[in-house]
Amino acid sequence: MDEKKIKTAVKMLLEGMGEDIQRPGLLETPERVAKSYKEIFGGLYEDAAVHLTKTFPVESNEFVLEKDIPFYSTCEHHLIPFFGVAHVAYVPTDKVVGLSKLARTVDIFARRPQIQEQLTNQIADAITEHLEPAGVMVIIEAEHLCMSMRGVKKPGAKTLTMVSRGVLQTDSELKNTILSMVGIK
Predict the structure, then answer these.
(1) Catalytic residue chosen out of the listed positions 15, 28, 31, 76
(2) Which is it for the CA torsion 106, 119, 68, 38, positive or negative?
(3) Whole-prediction pTM value?
(4) Is 141 among the residues known to form the active site?
């Protein structure tokens, strides 16, 4: 990440808005923004494989569901946050991953500028690629500040996206059980 470019861009942005970049409250803002972007967009430099390749053998093929995983992301269209929860389910074939690794996978992809639809697919694709499960389902519920604080101005409106792979795409009973467990009818 090029902190120098970020600092320059932030100064130009503030000046473009008509702000006085020499006023006390803004003097260190370019540095603060550059530092925060390293964290907020850190997922650009991380690979989900790091977390999803440490697996454990399992003989059960019952599904695993981790629900209500909080996340924060940034809309690539407006560079304004969206946030919510992710629900991740998979049906293992012969291996499982530590539960914290599912949350870390969500974070890696959320910490990139993007759209919710893409985020949902990226999580499902990474789990499919690295765990080779019989099925995967990822559901994301999020509020988009680009829709809440500007434009249509509808705070509290939630966007729900869902991706299913394998048996969780074809087995309606199993799919409905997971949807019911996360509170979706």
Answers:
(1) 76
(2) positive
(3) 0.95
(4) no
